[in-house]
Amino acid sequence: MDTQRTVNSIDTDRATDAQGPYDPQYDPLVDTSPGKGRDYASTYWIGTAGEPPGDDGPIEHDIEVDVAIIGSGYTGLTAAIFLAQEHGIKATVLEANRSAWGCSTRNGGQAQCASGRLKRSQWIERWGLDVALKMHQECVDGMETFKTLTRDIECEAQPGGHLYIAHRDRIMPVLEKEAKLLRDTFNYDVKMLDAHTVRSKWIDDHEACGAMQEPEGIGIHAGKLAFGYLKKARALGAKVHPSSPVQGWETRGGFHYLKTPGGTVRARAVGVATGGYTSNGLHRELKNRILPILSNSIVTRPLTQAEVEAAGFHSTQFATDTRVLRHYYRLMPDNRVQIGSRSAITGRDAPEKKYEQLLIRDLHRKFPSLKGVEIDYSWWGWVDVSHDMMPRIYQPDPSQTIYYSLGYGGNGVMYSAQAGKRLAQLIAGKGGELDLPIFKSRLPFPNIREKVVSEAFAPFRRMGQRFLYRWYHYKDEAA
Questions:
Q1: Domain assignment of residue 50, given as a range
Q2: Same domain, yes or no, for 177 and 310?
Q3: Is 455 exposed, middle or buried (0-12, 13-18, 19+ CB in 10 A)?
Q4: What is the pLDDT of residues 32-65, one digit of tens each?
Q5: Is 72 exposed, middle or buried (0-12, 13-18, 19+ CB in 10 A)?
Q6: For position 447, what pLDDT does the model report?
Q7: Quick one: which of 105, 120, 182, 206 has the most CB atoms within 10 Å?
Q8: For residue range 240-262, what is the model confidence (pLDDT) as tens digits?
Q9: 195 Cβ contact partners less than 8 Å away, ≥ 6 residues apart
Q10: CB hemisphere CA count around 354 (13 angstroms)
C-alpha cells in the first residue's frame, strides 16, 4: 500500500528537540492530553541510551495515510514494524511528545513470559483449561517473537529466566502449587528453590523465603530497546512524528480525521497504543477503560565488585517478589542495582520525596549492605492496568477501522512485541485466527456493566485505590 500522500517528509537522522520540559505531575485521569513535545523523564534508560534516533518531525500540514498508529512506544513501533514486514503497509506513527516518551522508557526492563497480571491457575478459573493452554502458548510464542525481533538490537540483554521470590514463608505453598501446575499441565519447566539456595546461589534478598525459577525471562535496557525499535520501524518505511498529539478525532465517510497542532491526519485505519498515558479524552471507546497506576524506580551508582559480592548478587537474573504491590529488581550489566514498586496514587502526589524514600527503605530491607550507596536515578511512570487484569488487542466495532492494544498491567516489555504483531494482523484484516478472549472482547469497565454508571463513578476510582493499597499493604506484610 501507498501509506502517505501529500505528507511532509523530513528525512533526517536527527531527533526532534523537546518543545517543553518534562511534566512530573501529568495524570492521565485528570489531564486531557499528555502534552506537546515534552522532554523525557530523567530515567536511567534515557540517561544511558545515547542520543535518541532520528524521526520524521512533527506533522506540519494535512496529510492522508492508510494506517495511523497513536503512540510511539514498544507497541506502536512493533505494530509499525510488523505492518511493514508482514503486510506491506507503511504506517504513520503519531506521538504527543518525544519518541518512546511514555511507558517504554520508564519501565523496569523485565521481559517475562506473561501477559497481564493473572497467573495460569487464574486463567483456568476464568476461561477453563483449553483456553488457558492456548493463552500460555500465546505467551511462549510471544517470547519467541520478542527474541527474534530484538536479535539485532543491542539492548544489553541479560537472558536466563525469572525469579519469583516468596517474601513470606506462608507464600511458599502457594508457589509450590502453581509450580506443579506449570510443570504438569503447561509443560513449563519451572523449579522450586528453597531459601538457602536462593540466597546463596542466586540473589541474597534478605526477605527471600524461597522462589520459583522460570526458564524464560530476559532483562533488557529499556531505552536502547525503544530506540532500536524506532530505527527498525523507520528503516522499513514507517514514519514517526513526535510533537504531534491527537487533539481531536472525528470519523466520517470511512475515514478518521486526527487533529494535531500542525495539521489533520486523514487515516483509513487507526491503531491505539498509548499504554498508561491514554487520555480519557482521546476517544469515547477508551474512556475509563484503563486504570493508570504509578510505579517508581530507583537505580544506584555502579557498585564495586566487592559491593556486589557483599550484597549477594550471584546472578543477573531479574526478580520480582510475591507482594501484591510487588517489587522488581536486579543487578544490571554496569553493576548498578535497579528496584521498582508501586508509588503514589495521583500525578499531583508523584513528585513527593517520600515515595523515593520508601523505595530506598525497601532496597535496604532486601540488601542491607547497600545502605549508604548513592542513588543516581529516580523516576516514576504510569502503568496501564485493565479492570480485569488482562490486556486486550481488539477491534471494538467491526464497522469501524479502529483498533487498540492496551492493559498489560506491568508485563508489557515482552508481550508488547507480540501485541504489536497481533495489532498489525487486525489492522491488515488478518485477525480471523485470533480466537483468544483477549482478542475477542473489549477492555471492561470496573465491575460495572453499564457505561453510564461507570462514567458516573469514575472519579471515585482513586479513592477506592487508596483503600485497596492499604489493604494490599496489610496483606503483603502479614507474617
A1: 4-108+223-289+388-445
A2: yes
A3: middle
A4: 889 999 999 999 999 999 999 999 999 999 999 9
A5: buried
A6: 59
A7: 105
A8: 999 999 999 999 999 999 999 99
A9: 208, 209, 210
A10: 3
Provide the CB-side half-sphere exposure for 93 (13 A, CA).
Answer: 36
| Residue in this structure with the C-alpha cell 508482514, named with its chain if needed | 86
Query: Pairing state of beta strands 162-165 and 392-394?
Result: unpaired
pLDDT (mean) for 109-120: 96
pLDDT band at 458 (very low <50, low <70, confident <90, very high): low
Residue 394 inside a domain? The answer is yes
Bin 380: left if φ > 0, else alpha if -120 < ψ < 50, else beta.
Answer: beta
With a CB cutoff of 8 Å and minimum separation 6, the contacts of 309 are: none
Which CATH number is 250's domain given?
3.50.50.60
Report the number of distinct structural domains present in the chain: 2
Say if residues 81 and 420 touch (Cβ distance below 8 Å): yes
Question: Are 214 and 164 within 8 A, CB to CB?
Answer: yes
The CATH number of the domain holding residue 210 is 3.30.9.10
Instruction: Tell me the CA end-to-end span of the chain in Å, nearest whole number.
Output: 60
- pTM score of the predicted model: 0.94
Please name which of 247, 331, 303, 321 lies closest in space to residue 34, comparing C-alpha atoms.
Answer: 247
| Statement to judge: residues 193 and 242 lie in one domain | no
